[in-house]
Amino acid sequence: MTGEALPIEARLRAAGLPPLPRTAWLEIDLDRLAANVRAIVAALPAGTLVEAVVKANAYGHGAVPVAHAALEAGARGLCVATLDEALALRASGITAPILVLFPVPPDGVAEAARAGIALAAGDSVIWARGLAAYARVRRRARGRLGELAVHVGIETGLGRDGLAPDEAVAAVRELAAVPGTHFDGAWSHLQSPEDAGRTARQVARFEAALDALAAAGLPAPHRHLLASGGLLAVERYVGGERPLFDGLRVGLALYGIAPEGLPVGRAAAGIHAALRPVLSLHARPVRVTDLPTGEGVGYGPSFVTARFSRIATLPVGYADGWARGLGNRAFALVRGGRVPLVGTVAMDAVMADVTDVPGPPVTPDDEFVLLGEQGDARITAAELARERTTISWEVVAAMSARLPRVYTAPAATVGICTLTQDRGPWRRSRSGTATSVTSRWTRS
How far apart are CA 191 and CA 236, in angstroms? Predict the structure, then answer.
C-alpha cells in the first residue's frame, strides 16, 4: 500500500529484516493507521479519551505494532477482550491504560492487578468470585499486590453482558469495600447505532445508571458508550449538541474501515472521508501453468476450464483466513487489473485464472493483491464481506497468525512479524514486565 515498486524481498533487505517464509503476506501501513487516529482525535470534542480497540490481534493487523502506533498518534488507552491479550501488550513495554472488556476467570483478577490492567465487571456472579479471589490474594500478599482498577459494564440493551442499571450502585459499593480496588469508569455498548430510537433508549438507560451512581456519591471517573458505529452514525452525540460522555472506543474505524450499511452523520462526514484501509493481502504464485479445455481446477472440481487457460496457484487458503466460501466468487488484482479466483478454496491455496491478463504471460514473479489496492484498482473488505455474506470485521480479523505481517511507515518497510520472527521499532521499547504503569484513565 505504500506504492513502492521494489519487490518485497528487496524492501526487507534494505530494512535489514529477514526474508519471508512464504510468498503470501500482509502489509500493514502504520502511517495510515496513525492518520486515521489523528483524524478521529481532531474531530472530537476537546478532552475526549480515544481508546484504541486492539482485541483479536488488532482485528488481524497485529496487536503490539498497532497499539504502539495508535498511542504515538494520539490514542490515550487500549481495549482488549481477554487478559492474555492485555498481558502481551504490557510485555511489549506499553504502560498506557489497558481495559479488558470481557470477564476474566477469578484467578486472573490478581494477575491483572499486578500488571496494572483494568477489568470490566459485567456479570454479578463472575465478578463476585473474581473480587473474592483478589481479596484473598491481597491478604496473603500483605498489601504488596497492585491496585485493581474496575470499569462497571451497564446492560443498556445489547443483551449480552453488563450489570443491570439498578445493580451499578451496589456493585461499586461492593468494590469499595475491598482494599486495593478503585472504581475507574462505567461503560456500555450500542446495539444498532443507526437506529435512532434504540440508541436513544440505550443512552437514557446509561445516563440513568450514571445519575444513580452520582447521587450515591460514586460518580464514574470515566464514561464511554460509543464505538466506531456510534462515532460515524450517532449525529447528536458526535456533533456537539450534548457531551460525548468522555471516552470513545475505536475499533473498525481505527483500521480505516467504516461499518458497511451504516449511514454517516454530517458531523462525522469528515472523519469518514479521511479513513483509509491499513491492511492489504499480497501473494506471488507458487505455480503458473497452462491447462487445456475441460480440465478441473482444485478439489471437486467446482471449476472446469471452458477454453485453453493459464492458471496461477496462490499460496493463500482458508487456514490463512481466506474463506472457503469465496470459491469462484472473488477476484485478485495483478498488473493493476482484476482476475477471477476459480475453483474451491483449499486450506493452503487458491487459483487465479490469468488467461486474459494483457502483455506477457503471468509468471511466478508477478505480485497479486487479494485485499487492498494495486494501481487504480482496489478490492475492499466490504466487497469480500458481501461475497461471504458476513461483515468487514470478520474479513480482517480472520487473517491468521501464519500470514507474515510486513509493517510500513510512512513509506518504507520498518518491521516484520511471522511465526518465528518479530522485528520492528515496537521491540525497542520492550522492557519485559512493566513496572511503571498508568492504571487510571485521566484527561491530563
Answer: 17
The Cα-based distances of 431 to 89, 94, 329, 436 in angstroms read: 11, 9, 46, 10
User: What pLDDT is stored for residue 335 in this prediction?
Assistant: 97
Can you give the pTM of this predicted structure? 0.92
Active site residue 55: yes
CA dist., res. 242 & res. 267, Å (int): 13
Low-confidence residues of the chain: pLDDT under 50? 1-4, 430-439, 441-444
410: preceding bond cis by omega (within 30 degrees): yes
Residues in contact with 202: Cβ distance below 8 Å, sequence separation at least 6, in sequence order: 156, 157, 158, 188, 190, 191, 225
Q: What distance in Å separates the CA atoms of residue 111 and residue 145, rounded to the nearest whole number?
A: 9
81, with CB counted inside 10 A (0-12, 13-18, 19+), is middle
Give, in order, the Cα–Cα distances in Å from 338 to each of 252, 376, 399.
Answer: 26, 11, 22
What does the alpha-carbon distance between residue 123 and residue 423 come to, in Å, rounded to a whole number? Answer: 39
Q: Which residue in 185, 144, 156, 152 sits closest to 170, CA to CA?
A: 152
Catalytic residue, from 237, 255, 299, 407: name it. 299
Q: What is the pLDDT of residues 166-179, one digit of tens each?
A: 999 999 999 999 99
pLDDT at 369: 98
Q: Alpha carbon of 67 to those of 92, 171, 175, 401: distances in Å?
A: 10, 31, 29, 17
Give the Cα separation of 424 and 414 in Å (integer): 6
Cross-strand partners of 415: 407
Looking at 55, 59, 134, 407, which residue is catalytic?
55
* Residue 443 to residues 47, 106, 131, Cα–Cα distance (Å): 6, 30, 27
Q: Which helix (H) or strand (E) holds 223?
A: strand 223-226
Mark residue 144 as left, alpha or beta (left: phi above 0; alpha: psi -120 to 50; beta: remaining): alpha
Helices marked H in 55-188 — which ranges?
55-59, 63-73, 83-91, 108-114, 124-141, 168-176
Residue 57's Cα: distance from chain center in Å?
A: 7
Percent of the chain with pLDDT over 90: 79
Distance of CA 256 to the CA centre of its chain: 10
Q: Which domains does the chain have, with CATH numbers?
A: 30-255+264-271 (3.20.20.10), 280-403 (2.40.37.10)
Residue from 260, 249, 204, 193 nearest 222 by CA: 249
pLDDT tens digit sequence for 363-417:
999 999 999 999 999 999 999 999 999 999 999 999 999 999 999 987 788 889 9
